[in-house]
Design the sequence.
């Protein structure tokens, strides 16, 4: 049986259709040590390896019934009768010496190419020629198939916990079709919007579902009006910066590596969570980038769109999107790195404690889904407009143990977040086996100075780590710190001094 896309899944197709510069695929590069007998696997071995495991995920053998959205119904997933694993797995070889620079340049080209909508929406590449005999598998999957957490689950399926793992078990019946959540009811959507929007706005949006079918031109005007109300009454516009300008189709991709223990030491001493550390470090990097360009730093902060998983435990291998969004103001105008960190923590905790914003961003997509697809695109574009946010920052926690593929240990994981139109920079962080990897993607022409951001990310971690150790907080191993310093810190906080 075919299965139609959900409104949220279809959003990522619509964003691509609205602007050729938007690439709505997620991605990851997995770097491996040489196989036990040396070297890397062949492309044929990788293909056979994938075939043995893709039975767990039938969606990877399916394509869209229609390559574009629009009209009066959503595209559906249907089996691709011409599916050929060989058309989805390529082979590449880096030029010598096969270091970070060569891999980043190759990855930039790989992530710059859109996926072919006439095929199942994913690609992989076996990358050979890395330094010290290493090799890599690069993946690219359309966001309409998976979100950040979903793609991590796919990675788990393709990886093993031991170098000689047993064959994969057959899929459970509940996931035979890829797994989707039941559609939301209008009553639940109305409850989600309670307290977020005026009642007339809620009813106005709901009416699009019936009136829009018969009067699409009126419904289009209604959709635009509803979006205007949402933006005007519920969200302050994001500041105008050089991070938000027309972009092209070419990307640059860079990686920053940080020990996970360092981030834990920072949050254990200064408070907050690992996600807060990621946000604060990125805020410092963006601050440095804007300063290097001679731009005035927005007093209210840059607004980051931070995806939040709403995936239930039972949806471990379900494809599709189970995400909402928080809009976090990053205090880039704050000069002191510790104050900048604590303000980031405070703003993040305030949003999470309220819980309404993430619920609202999910509801607006689903509420728009009551309208026909031709109308839904207007709402989808508005939610990803530069007026709402400046940059996307995502953090995906990964396993803290070594994983294997084809008998070789995986050493590093570099994540990719998509860039929507007029969003020149995105940052994704992924933790794995004791390290955190920041995957930084940018438009090649709009951000020729990307190295400023990349350098500043690492420098920010060191600044915060030095402050954490000087502050006498609790180290990463959980042992108590210097009590005198902690009492002094409490006294400073009580007097409003950081």
Sequence:
């Amino acid at each position: 049986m075919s299965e139609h896309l959900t409104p949220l899944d279809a959003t990522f197709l619509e964003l691509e259709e609205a602007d050729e510069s938007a690439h709505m695929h997620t991605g990851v590069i997995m770097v491996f040590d040489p196989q036990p007998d040396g070297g890397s696997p062949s492309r044929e071995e990788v293909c056979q390896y994938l075939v043995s495991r893709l039975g767990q995920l039938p969606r990877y053998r399916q394509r869209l019934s229609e390559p574009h959205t629009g009209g009066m119904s959503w595209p559906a997933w249907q089996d691709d009768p011409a599916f050929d694993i060989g058309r989805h797995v390529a082979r590449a070889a880096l030029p010598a010496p096969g270091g970070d620079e060569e891999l980043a340049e190759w990855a930039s080209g790989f992530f710059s190419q859109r996926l072919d909508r006439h095929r199942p929406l994913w690609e992989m590449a076996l990358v050979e020629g890395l330094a010290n005999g290493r090799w890599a598998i690069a993946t690219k999957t359309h966001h309409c198939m998976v979100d950040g957490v979903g793609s991590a689950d796919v990675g788990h399926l393709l990886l093993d916990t031991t170098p000689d793992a047993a064959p994969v078990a057959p899929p459970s019946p509940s996931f035979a079709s890829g797994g989707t959540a039941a559609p939301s009811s209008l009553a639940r959507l109305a409850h989600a919007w309670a307290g977020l929007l005026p009642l007339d706005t809620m009813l106005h949006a709901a009416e699009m579902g019936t009136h829009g079918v018969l009067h699409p031109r009126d419904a289009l005007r209604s959709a635009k009006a509803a979006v205007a109300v949402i933006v005007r009454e519920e969200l302050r516009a994001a500041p105008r910066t050089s991070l938000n300008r027309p972009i092209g189709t070419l990307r640059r991709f860079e990686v920053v590596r940080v020990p996970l223990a360092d981030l834990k030491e920072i949050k254990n001493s200064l408070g907050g969570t690992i996600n807060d550390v990621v946000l604060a470090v990125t805020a410092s990097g963006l601050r440095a980038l804007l300063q290097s360009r001679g731009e005035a730093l927005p007093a209210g902060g840059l607004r980051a769109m931070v995806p939040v998983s709403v995936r239930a435990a039972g949806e471990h291998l379900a494809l599709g999107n189970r995400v909402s969004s928080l809009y976090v103001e990053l205090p880039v105008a704050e000069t002191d790195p510790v104050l900048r960190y604590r303000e980031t923590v405070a703003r993040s905790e305030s949003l999470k404690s309220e819980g309404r914003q993430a619920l609202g961003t999910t509801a607006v997509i689903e509420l728009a889904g009551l309208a026909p697809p031709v109308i839904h695109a207007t709402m989808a574009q508005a939610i990803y407009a530069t007026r709402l946010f400046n940059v996307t920052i995502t953090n995906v926690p990964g396993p803290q143990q070594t994983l294997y593929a084809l008998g070789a240990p995986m050493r590093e994981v570099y994540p990719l977040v998509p860039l929507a139109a007029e969003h020149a920079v995105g940052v994704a962080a992924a933790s794995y086996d004791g390290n955190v990897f920041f995957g930084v993607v940018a438009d090649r022409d709009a951000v020729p100075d990307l190295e400023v951001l990349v350098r500043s990310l690492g420098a920010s971690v060191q600044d915060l780590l030095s402050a954490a150790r000087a502050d006498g907080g609790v180290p990463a191993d959980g042992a108590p710190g210097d009590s005198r310093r902690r009492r002094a810190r409490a006294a400073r906080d009580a007097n409003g001094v950081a």
